Predict the 3D structure of the following.
Amino acid sequence: MTEKEIILSVESLSISVKKHKIIKNLSISFYKNKVTAIMGPSGCGKTTLIRSLNRMHDLDKSFRVKGSILFEDQNLMKIDPILVRQQIGMVFQRPNPFPTMSIYDNVLAGYILNGIKLTTDEKDEIVHSCLKKVGLYSEVEDNIHRKGSHLSGGQQQRLCIARALAMNPHVLLLDEPTSALDPKATTRIEDLINELKHEVSIIMVTHNIEQASRVSDYTAFLYLGDLVEYDTTETIFTVPKDKRTEEYLSRKYG
Amino acid sequence: MSTQTREKLNQRLLINKIFYKLIEFLSFSLLIPLGLILFYIIKNGIAYLNLDFFLNMPAPVGETGGGAFNAIIGSFMIVGLAGLIAIPLGILIGIFLGEFKDHKMNNLTRIAIETLQGIPSIIYGIVAYVWFVLPFGNFSAFSASFALALMMLPMVAKATEETIVMIPYTLKEASYALGANYYTTIIKVILPSCMKGISSGVLIGISRILGETAPLLFTAFGNAFLNFNMGKPMNALPLLIYNYASSPYQEWQQIAWAASLFLIIIVLGLSIIAKNVIK
């Protein structure tokens, strides 16, 4: 594969919480405009890894993070987390739209919270294009200035994706984005991920093996804080090199 | 089932029934004093709670048609300033209590707030008297506001803390993930989500201090005239009730009844609003 260009590269990353090592000296490179799935059994450090990419661990003082994360010639570990998070968006397990803001303001939340002033035209443009990207525009068109709390779980999650996209991030982190959703809403989000990869590089954590095989181009398999195997999804799912990957994929443990 | 077990079962069911009825009876009997107070105040006050009461100044002894205009204005001004002090301060303390659980001052602040809540209201009056009335050399409305603000502070702080700890952490994460800093997360995400809880605490606090008399005796003191100067003695509804109800003049006592009714209506109204705001 010649077209693969590295967008984010993690070098010898170690994360520990109160002397308990969660990620052990891990290095991995993520590719531009690809969907990379991070997979592994519970407690393997998937979520811990993805949350280190936008410095969410800075919020909890018990986390110790070492190593470097290179992104466009800058080391993300060395710059202000606020700047990191404006370039790397994140969507969480449970949909968490801001309950006091309208759907419209939710999409613009990144601008509102960072005190970035926009004209009404710019706002309309951002809101409309982002809601269209996530396929929510026609569904909420008439209630766009109402609170988002009456939306279904799937719609709320798509609103959260729109909110992250509004900031024009280079990388979008998805932390088990469909684990709280029903199958129909899950399919919707998976289709969306496929459409979005043309404009943003996506790194997602998933518990769901089928989901990884359906939506991702690359798959990383983590086991007890180590990167066991990392390759194209096709290779991982057809000819896994490591026995642990093979056993996980055949559901010997989960 | 043998007769013995059946008897035992019937006995237990009977005790259960008595227990239930007892709770019911005792709870309803609580309505009697409240009902009597309301009935008595309405009966005595309703006839004098007229336009004169709201628009006229107190009349000299012997004249009819006097009102409580200066006391109503005074009460709103004193309580208003108390609110302006207690609400922002109480919210900030509440944020501190709810957000900085590991801070070494957190426990001390909590103890201070809880102690403030338990101090008898007359003590606040004496404190304000010593701190503001004595140094300035005269009774003043703002010293009353200070005493009332101290009383209201714990209620606002507690309401803020209790609401803020209920806000799911995921909401904060969502804000941080968009690049927001702590300050904007609190101001634009957390506090708006706490609005209902905080405003209910504020309303209950206001209804509490609106009827306080003891702190006012040493501070606002009372005034027979209309006064808008916070640095001078000012009349207030509880002071008017206190002075007029203990006077021997029938006209004044009637004004005191009307003022009591007016206060009760506001306090009841505020607590009903506070309850509904939560939902």
The radius of gyration of chain A is 18 Å. Chain A is about 35% helix and 25% strand.
